[in-house]
Protein: Polyphosphate kinase 2 family protein
Organism: Rhodococcus xishaensis
Amino acid sequence: MATRDRTQQHPLWTTPAVEALRAAPHTKVSEIDTKATPGFAGNKTDGEYMLEERGAVLSALQEMLYANGRSGDKRSVLLILQGMDTAGKGGMVRHVIGQVDPQGVDHTAFGVPTPEEKRHHYLWRINKALPRGGQLGVFDRSHYEDVLVVRVHNLVPPEVWGGRYQEINQFERELVYNGTTLVKVAMFVSLGEQKRRLAERLARRDKHWKYNPDDVTERALWPQYQEAYQAMLDRTSTDHAPWYVVPCDRKWYSRLAVTELMIDALSRLELDWPSAEYDIEVEKQRLARS
Ligand code: ADP
């Protein structure tokens, strides 16, 4: 099957996810409808059914990326997930990336920097975690924490975090130049939906481990976070590495949408199966004789 056939637009997508979700200069974080399903005309049942179908497409493309990597192709794809607590970053990794072969996935979650990480430049730990050729990298949080939580909590002076937007753009430009396609996903839930999800964590014994009392403290800083997310979109959504703004109150939608973004990114590589580096006919004969 040619790559183009695999990525054909489904009629329920009235606008392709890459177009419907791409951050625009006029995108206002405070006006994002977190319950919306941009570009998609189907309901939850449609969305869940399609996730499975499109997951198979994503998986086949990822296998091709991996196969090419094994044959020396230096290209890779990196999914960057940023979002407030409970936006569903973990679920995104499980349900979207979980659809592909784990041996081709390079997953890193970035928490509070360790003492060693703190001794280095903030991009040090990011550089160490970049995907190698043929890998599908996933960052659960990323260098963007250094202009989000760091900005909101004044962990460094404004002139320091202020200089990071340009530095990040430059860093990402080099990554793209060196063959990494970036898929930057900003995940948005409403304050109300976050409350509901946190309440569920408190209500269920199997979810207590996910609850962190600090998350409630952070809710008081919601406007400051919105401002920081706005600056991130305004200043780091570039042609070489645009942001996609994904409403996340409906998990079935956000997972399907990111699956589509990943399919698009992989399709653009125009991959094919690597050709054999041995004589197939000779090998067939050798095998028959063995
Ligand atoms: P999660 O909350 O995603 O399940 P953790 O419990 O590891 O994962 O929490 C990650 C925490 O680390 C978040 O509060 C996040 O803001 C914080 N963090 C990540 N990067 C940085 C950074 N560069 N500086 C300060 N805090 C950071």
The two ends are 32 Å apart (CA to CA). Residues 17-269 form a domain with the Rossmann fold fold (CATH 3.40.50.300).
